[in-house]
Amino acid sequence: MSDNPPLNGIKVIDQTQALAGPYAAMILGDLGADVIKIEKPGIGDNSRQWAPPYIGDQSCYYLAINRNKRGIALDIRAEGGREFMRRLVADADIFLSNLMTSASLQRHGIDYATLRQLNPRLIYASISGYGRRGPRAGQPGYDLVSQAESGTMALTGEVDGAPMRFPTPIADMTCGLFTVIGILAALQARGRSGVGQFIDMSLQEGQMTWLANIAAEHFALGVDPPRRGNRHPQVVPYEAVQASDGDWFILGVASDNVWRAFCNYVGRDELAADSRFATNSQRIANYTALLPILREIIRAKPCDEWLREFRAAGVPCGRINTTAEALGDPHLLERGMIIELEHPALGLVKSLATPVHLSETPLIYRRHPPRLGEHSDEVAHEIGYSPAEIAALRAEGVLA
User: Above 50 in pLDDT, residue 209?
Assistant: First the structure.
């Protein structure tokens, strides 16, 4: 097994803030890239202010998505800042941006057309609400707005309740993940062609992908699928059930074979033979008749007993965990899903790992989320600035 992660030697300029861009850049850092995070002097990434909660004086939000990066504070509104950026980009592999409109990117000289002239091998990933072309290009985009406009929010929540947001910023994170996929594909393409390319990412489009089978249902039937709460639209029974002790768990009977095994295990073989329930399509058609029978069966025992017995019988199931229960799962801890990094001001800081397990070139978690401007001098020296020039940039407020 090598200690060289897969993106070792790849240089990433992360000119993003909030979540989608920093999340993508963090994954690239986990994969071994040298990620240089650029922030505005004195202010930094917006997520630094998204608190409480804090750990020390750092927002938990910022700490969650900015490990494995070096941080510089640079004012690109000044010519000295733009020159600094040009030097950074000259030998970079990837440039990530989600901060500006196309017009402002051009005004600051960090649009793709300009940077491509400096570095034809550059892969430029742009993240925005609606993409860089189309009728809504240029409009600001936000996670919750994307959840609403994508059609997913209308389907989330109780059947008779109000539309419900997903509790984490799923549109931002999804766009970040697809951005990483696009970047990895562009790196592969560059290996063949020798040239980079522009990647146009949209929060709205990323969130739309969660429709998947729901979109197929609409294309087939031409209607809006109804909100179904915890019930699965194409598989029955596959939903949340409540045990005798009041705890909830998921029962996942995803095939007719599993249905027969379930019925046999609970001593209700007649249900497997019942013409109303024998096949999945019949169980869907007769869901309202099956549901009270199912609930009566499950209310006979406490949750832990069901989980233990169903797993032994090969019936898929899982407790509906709290956050604390999920983060304390011994299986996930054994697989390294929770990592700790030493922070110079905060001590050990925990975060979720990137769930990619490579046998020969594993991911390496090596850098704490940087303090604002923590590596400004280090990076400036690397790209050719003398100590006197660095001091001048600091005096001018260009570098902090």
Answer: yes
Domain, as residue range, for 279: 248-319
Kindly indicate the confidence band of residue 2, based on its pLDDT and cuts at 50, 70 and 90. Answer: low
Q: Of 319, 350, 377, which marks where a domain is finished?
A: 319
Q: How many domains is the chain partitioned into structurally?
A: 2
> What pLDDT is stored for residue 277 in this prediction?
96
Q: What is the residue whose two structure tokens read 């397990």? A: 357
What's at 352, amino acid-wise? L
Active site residues: 172
**Is residue 223 domain-resident?**
no
Average pLDDT over residues 70-78: 96
The dihedral through the CA atoms of 337, 342, 343, 349 has a sign that is positive
C-alpha radius of gyration, the chain, whole number: 25
One domain, residues 88 and 125: yes
Cβ-proximal residues to 99 (8 Å cutoff; 6+ apart), any chain: 15, 16, 17
Mark whether 314 and 341 lie in a shared domain.
Answer: no
Question: DSSP letter string over 257-302?
Answer: HHHHHHHHHTT-HHHHH-TTTSSHHHHHHTHHHHHHHHHHHHTTS-
The count of other CB atoms within 10 Å of the CB of residue 323 is: 8
User: Exposed, middle or buried: residue 314 (CB in 10 Å: 0-12, 13-18, 19+)?
Assistant: exposed
- H-helix or E-strand containing 190? helix 170-193
pLDDT at 205 over 50: yes
Question: Is 132 found in the same domain as 30?
Answer: yes
pTM for the predicted model, two decimal places = 0.94
Mean pLDDT of the chain: 95
**Which tens digits make up the pLDDT trace of 210-241?**
999 899 989 999 999 889 999 888 899 999 99
H-helix or E-strand containing 89? Answer: helix 79-90
